[in-house]
Amino acid sequence: MKEVVLGIDLGGTNTKFGLVDREGNIIIESSMPTDVHETIGTFQEALYKRSSVLIERANTQLVGVGIGAPNANYYKGTIEYPPNLKWKGITPFVDLFTKYYNVPMVLTNDANAAAIGEMMYGGAKGMRDFIVITLGTGLGSGIVCNGQLLYGHDGFAGELGHSLVNVFGRTCGCGRRGCLETYVSATGIKRTVYKLLADYNGESELVDTSFENLTADQITEAAKRGDKVAIAAFEYTGRILGMKLADAVVHSSPEAIFLFGGLTKADEHIFEPTKRYMEEHMLGIFKGKVKLLVSELNDRNAAVLGAAALVWKEKIH
Amino acid sequence: MKEVVLGIDLGGTNTKFGLVDREGNIIIESSMPTDVHETIGTFQEALYKRSSVLIERANTQLVGVGIGAPNANYYKGTIEYPPNLKWKGITPFVDLFTKYYNVPMVLTNDANAAAIGEMMYGGAKGMRDFIVITLGTGLGSGIVCNGQLLYGHDGFAGELGHSLVNVFGRTCGCGRRGCLETYVSATGIKRTVYKLLADYNGESELVDTSFENLTADQITEAAKRGDKVAIAAFEYTGRILGMKLADAVVHSSPEAIFLFGGLTKADEHIFEPTKRYMEEHMLGIFKGKVKLLVSELNDRNAAVLGAAALVWKEKIH
How many domains does chain B have? Predict the structure, then answer.
């Protein structure tokens, strides 16, 4: 039987999971709702049942489980104080899940998982120093230095979504103000559009959509049609992202920075200003040296793949 | 004969050098001017002559040379575009110095050297994840992750002095504006005092000193005597440093941050506000966890020691 790792991308709303072979092929995948489960117990039971069906159906042998989750503590296998999950406090996810599977398990945050996926199966193959920025509901990041994922003392390294842009700025889910992800994320650009609708007095096709209903995809489509506010929103996003990437560069001196996620569908609308402002704010010795690239896992489920890749990389042979 | 490494702390004005044994004792040390040498050739010749005298006098055997220098490229052994040295462009320091010594050599920036010194002989013994911030004319930093000094792709990682506080802020020697070291360094606090002398209309004992003559030590002494402007200058410095340290923490999740250098002589005047603002701006999962410590190498020549320590650590056995 083919050996596979179960990769799990645990999100606030949905959880995606799939069986990944050593070469990085997702053999079969599925998803289930996260937020209907009030307790970790019923969630893990449901996840076990559904993943077992996949394992059997694909006629495979499970050799490991990799989980990408928000606020994941790699060292302890715990999820700690996640703002977007119903399980509050500290959840010992890995310990509890050993009730179901007796194989090596690794838990890390979804952006770290994406970085490992990029290194093993994507555009970072052969690179030893790079950063992956995931642009979803929030902004996640995985930092690789000297070929190793940066975990730090607490296992929480690489939380660039909560680096500070403006301490008097936008309210953040973390309880502070002005974090990078309040500007640069699917949610962040929506907030920017609303700010700009005010500045431009509503000269935009986005004027008919409520705050609740507006999506990053709509903003992307509007920008591609030449909508002034949508284009300005990407410029604004790229300015802040570019500036903070220049700061990230002085920390870890990466060879490349990969952008992953929905916002990258805007292509040059997001890449051009981000690159321009990154170079404008870059310290001289780094100018023109750091590649800004689109993730090569963009069309695939990077967190499922990456969580599984981490197990293949660290736990098996 | 006792084996020693020649540790060199190459600064813009002076160069300090000493012979360091494996246990981190500086057996003998000396210094010479840097800025009288218009070319690297005459500088290295003078350095060789003076260090050879030390080696002979101490009756030791040289087994390595470690150099801490500004804008040092660890991988290439070069000093690249240093704003404060007379040798412009790229100087292949290590290659040229092999003319004099045929032993393993390592070149890195002085803050990286200080971080290695802290790890081998100072307060970071046994730590795997920490940051050393050196507060001198500028602000240097050495980042250690997973027990390894972070060099990054280009060998220039850890340039936190050039992370951005305010892109419209103070002019920096690097040609940009608002870099951290324009606020947080011996020079930075002097600029802050002058700003505050304006704000407070000169209600300070520092009002009699010219910009050119004012030193960080004078500001420290004034603060200890209760001078309003000097105390406010440390508060201002601590606010900006604390905020940027919170940002550094989300990058690499250190166990501790060490402050090194002249400004730390101000004791609680600098540590208390830095700690307070660092905690205020800290992401929840890191709050109360990251130690802010004074370097245990403060009274010793950390860059000489650290440059030598790097050779002992990486090049010998």
Answer: 2
